């Protein structure tokens, strides 16, 4: 793989200069115009828009042209697609039958420092951090109401990207200014403190819950990310912070956000709200998608097309069917712990599971992924759809309208439940109520108490294929270094085998190590 760079042009209409040459994350970002006589122009609103757009677009010209990140197929350079692949394919939930470069290594937990998805996500996150740094530098000192609000959101977005760097890469370069200097490498705990501080301070001036424009972050987004940060504090810093995780989860639960009455509506084309679909009352931070105006081969199109094929499956609202991602049997068994899942269509499986979240398609499928290269080997997961709940037409027959629910209220319920159980050394009535609230929404049987193992399974049932499973397994001690929990093809062995604890972190990309002497690779790589 050639050296990655952040390509020129953050956004043509916003900046008159190129931002190129990033081969050592943001440290080598050269923002000096080639011609010193060129005047740098800054369009505040357009750069602010680009900060959000980096989550849902891959470049300046649509799905294939002038991508933000060099050295990687533009479609795979999408923010959420990269996160999804690295947090799902490496776990007990998803397996991809494609032989594309980088995919088998994720399927079989065999990646290294030159892995293209590892490198791609690293540069995508630092591209986003750099954009936020640039915006904050250019607006420093502005006190008008709109600038104050935008700066708070930019700080939140920078913290969000640093959260993913902490979670996935651990000890990484730390930069808050656009500079040509090679950045130093910060300890994971130091980055944790930075993200915590940024979120706490930004939330003070962010808009109140549900008062900001849909698609923009508000106080609830900051609180929910804080709850997630605290829930994983023991992993990130060595010190648990269960009480704070529960506190901030409860703050989110107490807002005017409310659970979508229908689970599957969260993942349909009108999840931004319609006469029928009320999912937008639950979605706290979406990645906005519109088939007519925000086209790319990541985001919701990836979620839908990669889990479907155009033949022998029900309509799902797009002509694209890539037939790639399917379920490992362990995910299906979360819904069928004591019985066999039927090889049937989705409605029959939901009825048999007695859980609306069992959105599997098993007709002409095998439960076991016996043939790793065959899409029909393994159940399909049809959670995501470009159909509208109200039956209306979507904006495009190919590209998707479904917004990706990056942060949603249900996370607060499970965070509160888990943190409370851990804090109290066992189930509490409040924790049980929180879990049962979600299970009632799914028309699933409620229980009188839940153990931590039950809660881990509930995370999977509620959030399967939403790009977070790896983090949950690590927090529960069931990922790298664990020998007591295996899944099919874990460690590259069909029946599953353990792999090294060092794989709980992704490596610093080899490219960055080669050009920045301040960086040290994680042990084990």
UniProtKB/TrEMBL annotation:
Record keywords, A-Z: Cell outer membrane, Membrane, Signal
InterPro entries: SusD-like_N, SusD_RagB_dom, TPR-like_helical_dom_sf
Domain of life of the organism encoding this protein: Bacteria
N-terminal signal peptide: 1-23
GO terms under cellular component: cell outer membrane
Annotated TM spans: none
Domain RagB/SusD: 372-525
Keyword Signal among record annotations: yes
Domain SusD-like N-terminal, residue spans: 107-231
Cross-referenced Gene3D superfamilies: 1.25.40.390, SusD-like, Tetratricopeptide repeat domain
Keyword Membrane: yes
Cell location: Cell outer membrane
Family: Belongs to the SusD family.
Protein name as catalogued: RagB/SusD family nutrient uptake outer membrane protein
Organism: Tannerella forsythia (Bacteroides forsythus)
